[in-house]
Write a structure and sequence with these properties.
Radius of gyration: 61 Å
Helix content: over 70%
Largest sheet: none
Strand content: under 5%
Distance between the termini: 197 Å
Structural class: mainly alpha
Number of helices: 1
Order of helices and strands: H
Shape: rod-shaped
């Protein structure tokens, strides 16, 4: 059995010698393709690294501009907050002053109302006194007229 197998193997040796260069070329081209693929991937990775570095630099610049803009907006908001606080204090002071003025006006209105009542009472009293004086004068005049005739 072994001798027959060896004889068959010896018969295959010329075919194997023809296949070895083909296999070598196939394996070499496969290795070349792998190497080319590896180099292409390295170039792609290097290109991506450069692109990412450029994007990162751009983003850093944009973030710096955004930070500067936000700092300006923060400054404006702070000024507006301070202004609103001052306005609120002024409004509060104005309300207090308005309340004091309204209280003063209420007192003045009460005094004017009492003054009108007093004036009205005085006018009525003067009218009554004038009517009484006229009545007395009329009685005296009638009395003199009756005694003189």
């Amino acid at each position: 059995m072994w001798p027959k197998t060896l004889a068959q193997l010896l018969e295959l040796v010329p075919h194997i010698t023809r296949l070895v260069p083909m296999a070598d070329r196939y394996l070499q081209s496969k290795a070349d393709r792998r190497e080319a693929s590896r180099r292409a991937m390295e170039q792609l990775v290097d290109g991506l690294r450069c692109d990412l570095a450029n994007i990162a630099d751009g983003l850093r610049g944009d973030m710096g501009q955004i930070a500067a803009a936000q700092a300006g907006i923060y400054h404006q908001l702070k000024e507006q907050s301070d202004t609103l606080a001052r306005i609120a204090a002024d409004v509060h002071a104005t309300r207090l002053a308005n309340d004091e003025i309204e209280a003063g006006l209420a007192r003045i209105e009460a005094r004017v109302s009492r003054l009108w009542i007093t004036l009205f009472a005085g006018v009525v009293l003067v009218g009554l006194i004038a009517a009484a004086i006229l009545t007395v004068l009329a009685v005296v005049h009638v009395h003199q007229f009756l005694h003189s005739s």
